[in-house]
Amino acid sequence: MEIQILLSENGIKYKEIYEQIRLAILEKRLTAHARLPAKRRLAEQLNVSIITVQVAYEQLQSEGYCYSAERRGYFVSEIQDEMHYSQINALDLEKRDQHEFLINFKNGQIDASAFPYKQWNRLYRKELKESNASNAPWQGEYSLRFQIAHYLQQARGLACQPEQVYIFSGFQQQLLNVCLFFKRKAIGIEDPGFIRARSVFDQLQLPCYPISVDEEGCCVPDADEPIKLLYTTPAHQYPTGSIMSIARRIELLNWAIKQNAYIIEDDYDSEFRYKGAPIPALSHLDSTGRVLYFGTFSKTLLPSLRISYLIMPAALQQDFKKFNAYQKSNVSRIDQQVASKFIEEGLYTSHIAKMRTLYRAKRSCLIESLSKHLGDHFDIIGDTAGLHIIVTLPEGLKEAMAIELAKSCGVEMDAVSPMYQLQKPNHQVMIGYGAPSMDEIQKGVQLIAKAWKSHLSK
């Protein structure tokens, strides 16, 4: 039987197939016991994988809209009762899809279920009883800046004063402000590098130079390039996971001095290191005031809090304050005070220790599952720290196909190629393990392994 199915460009293909066939059955455009198109033929017609069609058919069958006959295919079920299909809420279907089928291997996610809500709410209720009607100072609440400076001295070996700490509402707003402060200077960014950083540079139309990354981390820019700002992730290079060597750190600091340039050190997930001792911040070596340190609570607490911070070299403080003289804080004063108390009471360090243990277990679960279900044909990169790994795919399985196959069986993950500006690879995917539970990690790997292996066996 011929059936017309229209697929959108960015939609989830199996879901759209499922929805349109289901609607055709409910509207009686497909009659009882009519045979559905063969999986291969429908896949060719829609230019999708057979697995995508199979997942849609299996979902229809599980909900009773069709049945299968061995070696004959799938047939429309006979539905006796009158179906008021117009009352079926599309939003409910979306929720069901998200909670029952979708496994979130996207990068940059955290396990929100492990957040200490009880302690946080206790502190929040206390702050609400106080007089907190006014805005926070633009630079941020002193109490929070003090706690951040103290924490960085203890945890990252970074000697700084509260006066050098500036509170922002997230990485991109912080980076935007710094770039404007430096008045359209040419900037270098690691290649591959953080796509959200590059989007800020693109929006500002800054001259942007890709700087290669090797096994020692971000390379030193060529002396003839007019770079006055360099964005880098030394503790855990994004996305490769490499750690910048001490020799390379010293080379970059010497480059900054000679070129009268500055380095933006994004220390985005340095707390989550699973092999060896914690890596000191690049700023720890900086005695000449050439490094601007970026930190955030998005990975260690909750992304929705929207609290990040900048450590500005002392020599630039006055100019930076003058530049932002008429700005207002856009970070909740109450949230800042609660975060300050959370750190002061020792709850922050305890939470990080707990999360490090949890994420280490998730990382091990993911690597073991990948090894069990995918074998030696899939290499793993960057597994010593952070909340994601990169999987190198074997010949015959490209990045776009691997992601589409994963999506067709209800698993979301990220592509690696957008992180590159020069030579874009097409054989790597990024798998984040912050959000899913252990069971979801195992189930997700089984699903993608089945889909990928089926594709490779054709």
TrEMBL record:
<dbReference type="InterPro" id="IPR036388">
    <property type="entry name" value="WH-like_DNA-bd_sf"/>
</dbReference>
<dbReference type="InterPro" id="IPR000524">
    <property type="entry name" value="Tscrpt_reg_HTH_GntR"/>
</dbReference>
<keyword id="KW-0804">Transcription</keyword>
<protein>
    <submittedName>
        <fullName>GntR family transcriptional regulator</fullName>
    </submittedName>
</protein>
<keyword id="KW-0808">Transferase</keyword>
<dbReference type="InterPro" id="IPR015424">
    <property type="entry name" value="PyrdxlP-dep_Trfase"/>
</dbReference>
<dbReference type="InterPro" id="IPR015421">
    <property type="entry name" value="PyrdxlP-dep_Trfase_major"/>
</dbReference>
<dbReference type="GO" id="GO:0008483">
    <property type="term" value="F:transaminase activity"/>
</dbReference>
<dbReference type="Pfam" id="PF00155">
    <property type="entry name" value="Aminotran_1_2"/>
</dbReference>
<dbReference type="InterPro" id="IPR051446">
    <property type="entry name" value="HTH_trans_reg/aminotransferase"/>
</dbReference>
<comment type="similarity">
    <text>In the C-terminal section; belongs to the class-I pyridoxal-phosphate-dependent aminotransferase family.</text>
</comment>
<dbReference type="GO" id="GO:0003700">
    <property type="term" value="F:DNA-binding transcription factor activity"/>
</dbReference>
<dbReference type="GO" id="GO:0003677">
    <property type="term" value="F:DNA binding"/>
</dbReference>
<keyword id="KW-0663">Pyridoxal phosphate</keyword>
<dbReference type="InterPro" id="IPR004839">
    <property type="entry name" value="Aminotransferase_I/II_large"/>
</dbReference>
<dbReference type="GO" id="GO:0030170">
    <property type="term" value="F:pyridoxal phosphate binding"/>
</dbReference>
<keyword id="KW-0032">Aminotransferase</keyword>
<dbReference type="InterPro" id="IPR036390">
    <property type="entry name" value="WH_DNA-bd_sf"/>
</dbReference>
<keyword id="KW-0238">DNA-binding</keyword>
<feature type="domain" description="HTH gntR-type">
    <location>
        <begin position="11"/>
        <end position="79"/>
    </location>
</feature>
<keyword id="KW-0805">Transcription regulation</keyword>
<dbReference type="Pfam" id="PF00392">
    <property type="entry name" value="GntR"/>
</dbReference>
